[in-house]
Structure formats: C-alpha cells, structure tokens
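Repro case for the chain-ordering regression, as requested:
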Amino acid sequence: MKYALFLGCKIPSALPAYEASSRAVLAHFGVTLVDLEFNCCGYPARNFNRYAFAAAAARNLALAERAGLDILTPCMCCFGTLRHAIRFLGEDAELRSRVSEALAAEGYAWSGKTEVEHLLTVLARKIGVDSLAAAVRSPRTGLRVAAQYGCHALRPGNVTRFDNPMAPTMFETLIRAAGATPVDWPRRLDCCGDPLHQANTPLSGRMTRAKIADALESGAEVICTACPHCHLRFDAVQAGSSDASIRTLLYTQLLGLAMGLPADFLGL
Amino acid sequence: MNFPSIIQTQVLIIGGGVTGTALARDLALRGVDCILVEKDDINAGASGRNHGLLHSGARYAAGDRAAAMECRAEGAILKRMAAQTIQDTGGYFVAVQGDDERYIADFSSHCERSGISTRAVEVAAARALEPALSERAIAVFEVPDASIDPFRLSLENMAHARSLGARLMRRSRVVGFAREGRQIRAVRVRSGAEEVRIEAAQVVNAAGAWAREVALLAGAPFGMTYSKGTLLVTHTRLARRVVNRLRPPSNADIMMPGGTVSIVGTTSTRVDALDDMHPTAAEVDLIVEEAARMLPALATMRFIRAYAGVRPLVAAPGVADGRTVSRGYALFDHEDHGLDNFATITGGKLTTCRLMAERAADLVCRRLGVTRPCLTATMPLPVAAECEWTEPGRSPRMWMRSHGLEDTLLCECEMVSGSAVDAIYDALRSAGDTPTLTDIGLRSRVGKGACQGAFCAVRTVAHLYQRGDFQARRGIDEILDFFGERWRGQRAVLWGEQLAQAELMEALHCGVFGEELRGEESRAAPDADPAGEVSP
Amino acid sequence: MTGARRDSCDVAVIGAGMAGMATALFAAERGLSCIQVGNPGGILFASGLLDLFGVHPVAERRLWRSPYAAIAALAREQSDHPLARIDASSIRTAFEIFVAALGAAGLRYAPLGDRNRSVLTSIGTIKTTFGVPLSMVAGVDALEARPPCLLVDFRGLREFNARQIAESLGHRWPDLRHRRIEFPGTEAAPELYAAHLARALESRQTRERTIALVKPLLGDALAVGFPAVLGLARASEVHAAFEAGLEMPVFEIPTMPTSVPGLRLLGALETAVSARGVRRRHQASVRALAFDREAGTAALDVEGVPGVERVVARAVVLATGRFTGRGLTADRGQVRESILGIPVLQPASREAWHQRDFLDPSGHAVNRAGLAIDDAWRPLDADGKPVWPRLFAVGSILAHQDWMRSKCGSGLAISTAWAAMEQVARQLRGTGAG
Amino acid sequence: MSPALFQTALYASLALCSLGLVWRVSAWFRVRIGPDARTVALSQRVAALLRGGALALFSRRVFQLAGAVFLDLLLQRRLFANEKLRWLGHLLILTGFTLLLLMHALAAIVTAKLFQGYQPTLDPYLFLRNLSGAMVITGVGLLLFGRWRRQTGLPQARRPMDMAFVALLGFVLVSGFLLEAHKIASPRAFYRMSDQFIGSTDAGRLTPLRAVWASEFGVAFDDLKLPIDPRLLEQGRELHRSACASCHTKPVSAFVSYPMARVLAPVTDLLDTGRADAWLLYLHVFACFLGLAVLPFTLMFHLVAVPISLLVNAAAPNRDFSLAGRASRRALALDACVRCGICDLHCSVAPLARYLGNLGLLPAHKLQATAALAGGRLLGCEDVALRAADGAFLCTDCGRCTAHCPVGLDLEDLWEAGRGDLAAAGLPSPAQWVQAHPALAWAESLERGPAEHVDSGPDDLLAPLSADRRSFSRCVQCQTCTNVCPVVAHSMDSNHGIDLTPQKVMNLLRLGLRDLTLGSRMVWDCATCYQCQENCPAGVRVADIMCELRALGVRRLGAVRSLRESS
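-- result from build under test --
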C-alpha cells in the first residue's frame, strides 16, 4: 500500500505527534507514505469563494494524480474538504472548467482519478481490523475510551463515505482492536467546536466543554481523536480551565501503545 | 357578540369587500354614521380572491377604452392615497410566438389613446431583467402596472372608518328587509344565533357577487351573471414585475409578483351557484399550461395554493362568456323598483373600488341631504398597525427588528411573530369581536406559506391558549376549521412537492394526532369490550 | 484510485422509513447481507408510538380496542388491505422482534400485549395506539385513572402548551393541572427546540435543576406529564432520574414533529441496523434499477456524490413510501412509482384524488392509491404479473390502505416488512442461499 | 581627487549611515506589532534585550551562539537547506564583498598593515580584487537568475529601494572595473607614472619601456610602431625592472579588467583626453559613499538585522521569549526579512492567492502589510488594507513559512500579532466584521448601497444553491435542521442567543429575502457540522448553502462596508 500523505496545515506545526505516530503505525503495516508538497486543502476558502476553494482542493488532487497515488490524510477536516471538492467538481460543469483552466495555467490537470482516504478508513478497511488486532502486543485492557467522530469526516455521509453517519461503528471497532473499551456517550457525534473557535470563541468553548463533560459523565477516561482540530481543541479548552479534565489520545497513539511501539515514536 | 336587538344608523352597508369598506370610509369621512354588515369576513369574496393587480389600464386599452382610462386615473389616485398597500413593481406585456401580430402592433397606440404610457423593450433586455420570461417571447412592452394588497386596503379602509365612528358587524348575514312603501324600514341581520334589526335611513347593497341575492330579498331584482376566476399561488416569487400576456384578454394571462410569491391566473367560467367555490383540477391545469407559454418555469414550479373568486357581472342579455361582459361597475338606485332608500353598487374592479364607493356615497349623500364632498381622492389612507401583516415579506423584517425573548415566530414559512398575532387579535377583540384562527389567517400570512397551516396553526393556538384567549376544547375546533378553509385552496394544486406537504399535514394531524376522530375518543374508553370492537 | 464503485448483497432495501428500516432489520436478523438506500424520511415525523391498527371502517370512524380483532374484521370486509394478508401470529412475532431490537438499541417499549392503548397528545387529543415507549406508559395509566396530575411545559417550546392540553381535557379530567417553567439555562432563548432540551437533560446538572424547579409545583399531583424531551440517547436514564427525583410516575406526551421520540426512534433504528452490518447509503437515491434475468440479479444505480455506485443484489425490496418519502410521485396527470414506473392503482383523474373536505370521513382516494401485489408481496406489472421474481414491496407504497385514517402506519410497515422478508428468504433459499 | 573632498564625503556618508543605523535599530524597540506589544514600554524592551543578551553570553548558551555564528551566519545553513543556487550566490556576494571591503576599500588600514609591500597593482592583490569583484557580480547574477527561474506567476514582494540598491552595487563594481581597466590601458597614466618614477616624459627615451608596457601590460599607445623590435623589448624590460617591477605585476591576472582594457584600447585615447580616470574614480568612490550613506534604508540593512536576528534566535531556543522580547523580535523581523520570497513558495495558501487574485495572502506581502500597518501607512489605502485583511485571515497557521525562512523569522508569531492589529484597526476577520451589525442593518445597507456591485463573478457561480429555488422547494417545514443544530442548541444557555435558525435561513431564501440572511449570526456561527444536511428528510443541502451565504456575504456586505463604519 502506498499513499501520498496529506498532513494538512495543522499537524506539522501544532501536532507533530500525530504525524510521528501515524508514520510509526502505518510503517508497521507496510504502508508507504510519499511526501508531496501539498497546499492547503481549501477549507478556509469555502467561506470566501467556492471557486477558489475547489481549485485549491483540485490542485492537491492533481498533485497526487501526477504522482500516481491516492491521498491518505490523518486530518478529518482536510478529508472532508477534499471529498466535498470532488463532489462540487463532479456536479458543476462550469466550476470544473474554470478549475481546470486554473490548474492548466500551472501545468496541472486532474482527471478525477484520485481517491481520498482518511487514516481511519485505511486502518479499518484497507489494513483491516483483524490485522490491527493481530499486531497488538500490549492491549489497553480496561481503558474506557470515548471515540470522537469528527464531523467533517462523518457527514454528509454521501460525500465522505466514511461510515454510517447516523450510527457509525468504525471508531469503536478500532478502539476494541487496540484492546480498549469504547464508551457510549451521547455527544459522540457532536461538533468539537473547533470551526467556530475564531468566529465565536464563547460558543465554540461551550460546545467543547459540553462534549468533555459528557465524556466524563459517561465514564470515559480518554477521548480518542483522529483529527488534529478536534484533538487540539479539547486540549486548548482544558488547558485554560479548572473544570474536571479528560485525557486526549490520538488513535494512532492508542494503537501504537497497544502494538508496543516505543512512546517516543508516538510523540508521547 | 351581543348587539341590542334594534340598532339605528344613517347608512347600512351590506358587504365588506373592497367596495363596502371603501364606502364605509367615504361616508365616515363625510360625517355620515354607518354600519357595515358582512356575512363572513372582510374581503371574503372576490375582493380577496383576485390577482391584487393595480391595473395600468393597458389590459383594457384595446377593448374597453373607458375602463382603461378609469383604471389609469384610479390607479394614479390609489398610488398616492394608499401608497402603503401598493408596490410599484411596473409591468410587462409579453407576446410569445403564435400570438396575434395585429394586436401586438396596435397595442401601444391603443394605450396611447387611453393616456397610458408604454415603452417597447428589447426582448433580450427584458429577459435579462426578468430571466423567467420565455425564450419564445417576441415582443415586450413596459407599462405602469403595480401590485396592491386588497386585504390591507380593505382592512385599513375599515379601520379608518371605525376610527371615525363607523361600525362593523362581521359574520352577520342579511336575512330580510322590512319594507314600508318606498322605504326599507329595517334590515334583519342574523349574527350567530341572534337576529337584530338595523334601522337605517339608507341601505347600500355592496355585496359583490351576492348583490343580486340581497337585492332580491329587498324585492329589487336585477340581472347578473357570475364568472368564476381561478388563480394559483406559487411557492417562490418568479419575477419582479407584473407580467401580462400581450393578447386579447384570455385565460392565465397575468402573473403578479405578490411580495414573496407569485399569483398566476385567471380563468373565466360562467357559474350559477355562488357558494362552495372550489378551484378545479381542470382550471388549474389550464392556467399552468397556458401561463407556462409566457413563463416556462411555471411548468415545474411548486404551487402552494389555488383560489377561486366570482366576478359579479351585471348582465347584458345574451352574453355567455363572462370575459366579454363589461368589467365596468353598476350603480342602481332601485327607484324603478319602488325604493327610495336602497342602492346597489356592484361589478367593477379592484382598481376602481374607490371610485365606485365615491359614486355610491354621492348617491346616498344626495338622498340624505349631506353636501360634504368626497375626501377619499385627496386624503391619504392612514396606516393602521394591526392591518400591516397581510403584506408578504413584511413580517420577517418586522420580527427581525423586534425579536426578543417575548416575541417568537408562530409561523415559520412566512415568519409571522407572536406580536403580530397579538396585534391582530387585540384589535379585533377591542371591537367586541371573538377572533378565530381563520380571522387571524385572513389578516396575516399565518397559514399562507408552504405548510398551509400544518405547523403554524398548532403554534398559534398554543399561543392563544397561553394568553388565555382560548379555553376548553376550542383550540382543536379552530385548527380544523382553519384547515378546512385552507384545504379549499390546496386541493387543486396537490401534485409534486405540495402533495408531499399535504400528505405530511394529514400524517401529522390525522395519522399522529387523530384530529379527525375528535369526539370519538370516549368510544375507546378502557372499559369497552376488550375482545373486539369498541362499542358505541 | 477511484473506479466505478461497486458493491453487492443479498437484499437491497430501497427506503429508510419505518418499513425500510424494519425490512433491513429483519433481513439482517435472517442473516442476509443487506444494503439500504435512503434518507431519514418518515421516521423523523413519527411520534414514537407504534400504531398497529386502530380504526375500521375508516368512514365510520370506528375505534378498536383490540387491533387483532380489528384486523380480523378487516380481513373479512376488505381482503385486499395489506394487513388483511398477514396472520396475527406473524404480526405478533414481527412486533416482538422489532421492539426487542429497539430495546437493545436503548429505546425501551412497554410489553406489547393484545390491546390498543389511549395516549394523550400535545394537541389535546387522545390517540389510540399499540406500542408505547416506557417513558409514556405512566401517561396511559394516568389517562385511565385520571388522578390529580400536573402537566409541565417550558416557556419557548412553541408547539407544546400544557394549559391547552388541560383545557382540552378539562371536561373529562378536572384534576389535570398545568404549570409553565423556564427551562434551566435558556433565559436568553426566545424559542426552544425539543431535541435541544432533550440533550441538555442528559447532563446530570441540568436534570437536577429541572427536577428542583418542578418539585415545588407538584401539589397533590400523583403523576407528572412533560413534553417528550426527557433525554435523547439516554432517554431511559433521564426518565428514571425524573421519576426518582419527583418520587412519582412521570410520563412524556408526544409533541409535534420533528419530535424527540421520532429522533430517538431514528437513532435506535440506525443503531440497530448498523450494528447488524447493514450497509446504509444516506442521502442517496436509486437512479435506476435493472434486472438481469439470466443471472437472477438486480442492479441498482445508487446516486452518490460524485457519480454512481452500482449495487448488485439478489433481491430488492421497495420500501420507498408514498409522496413524502418519494416512493410515489405525482404530476398533474397521474401518480407514478418513482423508480421503475410500476403501475399504480389510482383514481381516474386528479379531481378525484382528494375530497372537498379535508376531514371527509372516508378519507382521500389518493391515499389508497399504490402498488398492487401478489401473494408473495411482489408488485405487479400492467399484465398482473410480478415485475421481477425477487422484487418486493412493503409499507405505505402498497395500495388499498389509508394508514393515516386507519392508524396503522407502524403496523403496516413492520408487518409487511416481516411478511415480505419471509418470502424473500424463501425465494433466496430457492436459489441456493439465505 | 582632493583629499578634503574625499574626507568630507567619507565622513558625511559615515555620519549619515550611523544616524540611519541608530534610527533603524531604535525601531526594534519602538515599533509595536500586535495588541500585546502595546502594553510593553520601550524601557522594558531595552531591558529585555540586555537581560537576554547577558543571559546568553554568560551561560552555556554561548556555545550555541558560537555555533549559530558559524553555521547560520557564516555558512548560511538555513539557506543551503532551501535553495542551493541562492545559497551559492549569496555566499559569493558575501565573500566577495567582504574581501573588497577589507582588502580594497580599507586597504590602507587593513591590507597595507597586514602585508608588507602591499601594492594594489601587485599580485595576488590584483588577482584577488578581480576575483572578489567577479564573485559579487556572479552572486548577484545568480540571485537574479534564481528569481527569474522560479517565476510562479505571482509577483514577488519587493520595494523599489531594493532594486535601486542592487543597481548601485552593480554600478560600484562596474565603475571599479572600468576604472581599473582604464588605468591599465591609459597612456596618460603611463606617462604620469614614468614622470614620477623615471623622471622623464620624453617619448624617445621611454620607447623601450613603452614597448614593454604596450605588449605586456596592455597600455594602448596610439603612436606605437608595430611590430615591436625584440631588442627594444629587451631594453625596455631592463628599464621596467629597475623602475616599475616593484609595484606592478603583469595585469593578465586582472582577469576582468585586463580584457576590458583590451576592449577599451581603441577609445583609450579619447578617454584619456576626457580625464576618464578622474571621473571614473569620482563615480566609483561617490557611489560607494552613497551606498554607505543609504545602506540603513535599503535591503542591505539586513547585513545588520539578519545576524542579530539569528543570534537572538540562538540565544533563546524554543522561541522562549518574554512579551517584551517578542515585541522587539517582531520589529526586528521586519528588517531582517530580505524579501527572498522563499516563504511564498512554500506557503500552503499561496494557490488561493492566485485563485482569489489577492496577493495579500502571501507571507512576504503580508509582512510588508504588517510593516505598513505598524508604520501607519496601510489604512490610508482602503483597498489594499481590505485585501491585506482578507489575506491575513485566510492564513492557516501551517508554519511552513517559519520553517523555511532562511533567516529564521518566527513568522507565525508575526501573523498572529498582525491579525490582532488588523482587528484593532477595524479590520477583523469577516466573521467578526459581519457580526458587528445585526442582519437587518446589513440588509438595509445593501438596499441603500449601490444597486450593482463590482463583482468578481456572478452569484450563481459563487452561490449556485442559494440562487436556485429548487434547492429548498422540497422543504416541508419540519424543523429537523434546527432540532439537530448544535449552534442553536448551545445558543440558548447564555447571552449568545442566535438570531435565526437553519430553517429560518432556508425560509428567508425561499421568500426571496436572501439579503436578510447574509449578515446573520446563524450563517456566520454555523459550525458546518452537517447535522442539518445529513438529517434533512427533503434532501435540502442546508450546510452547503450556509457556506455559500458566507462567501456571498463576504463579497456583498464587503461592498457596502466602509472602514470607518466598522472600526
């Protein structure tokens, strides 16, 4: 298995542990990751200009296509954005032609071949839960873990094709593979608040805190994430608060620990 | 309502349509005491069932020059005197391939002769401004058409009249006249279970399509034909301007932008009976197919409602089709019927309602010896706060301006707030009335949006219970009455998305809440036969 | 790299309303692999109450205490009604399995029994129904015994007014009282939404504050009714906490859609089918359906974004519903079946679709339009033959029923899904699988 | 050249340069970037520097500092990691220029003291001078070539002064070489020297020497008879050895100016007549003085700023700065940026700059805008300011600019500070400036505003769903979208009430009242969690429409917004 690794903007600068742990875990399963210099997935431009957003996303897809690779991203926001762009380009001929023009001006082209995968979809579907479980050396038995499904990967399901958007099971299955116990928490599919962090900080904070409180009330010891935005938001809100707090752990860290990978490989 | 059994007044007006209410105001402004009796509610007849078009007159320029000039003059007066009820949208006359070339060629000169300004517009330019126009359009003229809100006009006319001392009796039907010689001594009016006698010096019959029936009761028969006209309301607004078909008056040749929706029509069918006026599927199909030639989007548009009104046409012998009968009005003094204090004003058009009222008032005043002149052409109609809510697109703004903890939306489709309902309810209430949900619907956009009442009726009723206005089991009855009224307009447009909407309404109100079974619940009492059918 | 996406299964279920979910659930229970296509649809508009059969004949508005006796009467008098084709034991089994699956997904119902029950609604009517969520059972009991009872509502919840219910029932239940309270922490919100309150009550703190507000208002009440907002994913827990906190029976009253019980039902059903491995395709529709008669398979082109997914199935169940579910579409001329254009039994013209009176006791003719089927639940073509040997139809798309007036929506969905799935399994066994 | 004039010019330019340096360096303590920087007094910033410097010098960090001097400053490893060609060019310029400065310009002070018998016309000095000059010219050429080669289609940030200074530098070098070449070829210089050292200007007596200097030293005598008699040459060499050789080696080693002298030979006489040696010298020297005088105000100030910036970084690893330190560091960064544009190359939103047609997104341009804002020049130009603000708020803080910056600037810190300043100047992010007014006020100002806005494209490309009635004609008013909306849910428990709900937004669109939605809280607070869209039973793409409305809002409300109003 070989993918172009799309780290997005957040991971290298703010959460290098996610990159490290993803590389460590994927390497174990023989996944080769190729580094291309991608640009921003396009998400911020959605609020400015649909065309700019689609073109920025398409440029990434074109870069991957030129390298003959599908994209793997550990970021749910980038994942959803790229998938959205594929949708918009697919349904709007005028948009597509304008984007093609822009790409052509830089010598790029995207024919629609690039597939976009999230780290979790690769782990669960391409590598397979059984292979993951087989690699586990020190299962995290008894660890009660709340799975944080990120909105942008989960919904809309017809665009992201991540899991059943109403009743997903993938993340819990992956947590079980690491030997831990997934916790059922009512707000597991809620927004973490990160998209509103800049636009409306108090509202964003209320959303994050509601999730943390819910995870705690549901008996979780850890919120497990697979998106830098969700992860950093939980950490940031808890950093400045005296409320009860909960540990956050990236899924790759959870799995890596269970696989017996050294902590410093996992950015821990 | 609790009226004394005998009421006295100078003038009794029968009929609360655009003419009757304008007449009440006209008389009140001349210092004449009057009572208006209305068997149903304001504008319940044709006054509330038309396009809401303030004619420039161009429609009649070719066939009826007098009517055209009258429209032009009256339109200009209303634009000044009742500006709040009018949106000066402007209008297009549009011909499409296959339309009569001669008519197109002569159109502007006909208009010119009636003093109506027209301007030829390049078809491409017109389509740039109104993208909904058909690409098969071949000629476009601009005319000074406008849209007018007949409900607001009548409600404000009546509100002003009342502020000057006029009285309104809604849901009061004239059931008989007491004649004495050449005089009508009293008019018997049934209001609910009660009957009252109204003694008036003069009686004016402004009952619109019902004018003939009323006159018959008074023993003053005259000939009249009825022309049923059906119109459709779209889910979204289609164009900025009025769009008329550039051809001799025919079916479905006017599309009116009515605030947030568009109104398309009309048909013209000779009918004999007046009540139970339902738009039929055939009429609706005719409008959709014909109007789509001018505005193709109509073929796939979601319609939320159809309604049918009856044009009262004073009969010319031997004419069958209502459309060729004059749209002019008729004022009868009934003196040849042996009556000196009875008059009938009927026919006419929305655009000329003020003029009709003026003429009737002139007659009445002459008979009463009142010499004060008519003021309605020179005195602007005052705005009445409780009458503002009929205008589509107004309530969202009003709510966004006012909204706070105490003002929630009751109707989501048209965004009507609790404060609007309160204003309407309290205004009716302060006049001694018992307002119903249907009354509120007539005076606002409640129930007029996509859901046709399925959601807003429930919220409005809950709101009125909370205010203490509704008691006991009245709420459910009101909801069902309201649905019944709304259903009349929905039934003929139920296909596509609006059929899904109607199905949802029935699923909720019948499927989930079982409202059609009200009163039956006791029959399923727990002590009924457990083995089988619930015994009555 | 993206190719044309493909997938295959034993049974493809088209539709995700009550009938579609029941079909997918029963298919999975039988061990058949299943792909299900469709929007949340009708379940959102559900009340959480499971009707079986309540009114027959519709025109007489006759209510029945025993749904099974009513169905027996139906079978005698109107044998083409879909429910008349199913025996009582199948219906019982279907309901038991369905309700058990909901319970396992966290939505618990009272034991079903044999009788219809009467439930108070938010609009002040009394609804006859069959399956009642545990959170509403105390209301059934209270309505029977009519003890002093308090109804609570929340300022801002526009569709639910306790005063209205108390006024509407005052003539029969004089000790029904009402109080309005401010939902904790909603001081700035002019309008409230049931689902938001339900989720807020899942936090212990909000729950306790609410209980503390209600407790002083109880007076002589022996039961308390609330709008159906007592928790969403944690409904049982929230309800139990209210009963413990208020020390008396607490019941929910179903509200206007989209209601919390509807969202609960949707959540529970999605969880149930997801847990059973049903592959769901949300916000998707079937653009084309073709049959390979030689291979004995059907090919569904599922409209996704972008492009189309080809699903190959050995059997297909149409559970696409009526107009709201878009299984049927109507233009000005006629009613059509949306995917294949299967002939729809319907009135001759649009003028005859609806009565002039909305509440006409006989109901509207268009609501009895639908697909004709054979004994094996297979829709029939113009020649009266099955469209395809393994194409089945269930739920409200079937002709000869008016679920809204008969109060048999869930009953129709669950029972026909069960009955059809028996036929599906039989047919698939016949071809060497299942 | 008169020494007095030379001295005066030198001291004047030195004085100007020193004043300039003082002014520029003081800016590092004066200029305030970022709202937090406003809270720090000048004295605190100076104190922070002294404290930091002392801490670094008198601790183990001194080794890191030394390492930084060697690796970052001398070897320029950050640049090496980014662009080899540019590194090479830069190293050539740095080395060549340093050599020229020390060994040529300051020859009297440096070279003559270090090397006995130093004469500029002797090898290796002659060769080395040419080599140094050639290095500088090659280096500049490489930099210009590199800049040309990586044309991205986007203009690179630069100031007019930058190019002017490069031109001046070129002029100094070219004039220097020309002067040297002319001196080599000049018969006039030959006669002046022979007069001085041989005591004769008699052509006949000097004939043998002339023959040698013509054939071996490139002097272009116009009256020399050719071919030259070898005996004459022999004679001349004798004379040369006695009179000239101690100061002159053969100019062939001047591998730049000697060929130039050969080329100039035909016009040498003319140049001599025109006293070219004098005015070339003037030009060369005064160009140098001019360069010196304006140096603090040109790109060359980076010669001062970059080393200090690198040392400051080394002194405080892990970017561990006090607020006062950060404040000074931001100001320093404005000077240390050499506008190399490497950040632009790696910027992850650079493609957006192209697609949006807004260069304000690019880091190097952003830095200029930041400097302009700090200098109070940005707000004067509303257009530029608005674009700068748009750009600033599209930055994703990916940190690639910082990671690649060859001079190690902490650009992310600058961007954050810059956004703070923009917000304080009335240019906050769209989400914030839109929400400064209620939706109704925006709608009303749209009505009052110009009917047709200057648009970059039609609405239907920007917002195709919200412009199409079919997008919401299926809505059945069930409120599911609102019921599942977390933003509405979380807006009921405080003073952050929401103005509209998703359903109301959809209804306003259906009613044709789109302008009423563009400035609404609901639209701008939408978290795009897609619950509404996922749950909609009618398939209405609620969240997609929300995104469209924001894009439309940025454009349409932006057109009726004025800076004055929003600040």
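Ordering looks correct now. The longest helix of chain D spans residues 3-30.
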